[in-house]
């Protein structure tokens, strides 16, 4: 479901960018696009492009909200600190120590097996 919604969202984004770029510039701040003639100079075409842009903008907001809601209610864990391996609770109670993340990392960093004495 999420993949389908992402694909639809991307198609809406591309169409929205294309629709905005097709519209005639009315500001003329840069001196481009303010010409009198052209393919998109009729009033009816401008209204159609404006309505199309509004519809695509609404679709963009709807798909954005839907994607954010799907991400919010996804079944992923919230934090690494909240994840506890299955066997770690039994280890902590057998050893009588705490079951914190730092204790687990300290146990993993302790060397196992035969050690070579330092050279003198």
Automatic annotation (TrEMBL):
The keyword Phosphoprotein is annotated on this UniProt entry = no
Q: What's the protein here called? A: Protein-export membrane protein SecG
Q: Name one GO cellular component term.
A: plasma membrane
Question: In UniProt terms, what function does this protein have?
Answer: Involved in protein export. Participates in an early event of protein translocation.
Supply one GO BP term.
intracellular protein transmembrane transport
Residue ranges of the region described as Disordered: 82-120
Q: Mark the transmembrane ranges.
A: 51-71
* InterPro entries reported for this sequence: SecG (IPR004692)
Under the heading NCBIfam families, the entry gives:
secG
The organism's place on the tree of life at top rank? Bacteria
Q: What subcellular locations does the record give? A: Cell membrane
Q: Which UniProt keywords apply?
A: Cell membrane, Membrane, Protein transport, Translocation, Transmembrane, Transmembrane helix, Transport
Membrane disposition: Multi-pass membrane protein
Query: Which residues fall in a coiled-coil region?
Result: none
Q: In Gene Ontology terms, what is one molecular function of this protein?
A: protein-transporting ATPase activity
| Low complexity bias locations | 100-113
- Tell me the protein family, please: Belongs to the SecG family.
Q: Which PANTHER family match?
A: PROTEIN-EXPORT MEMBRANE PROTEIN SECG
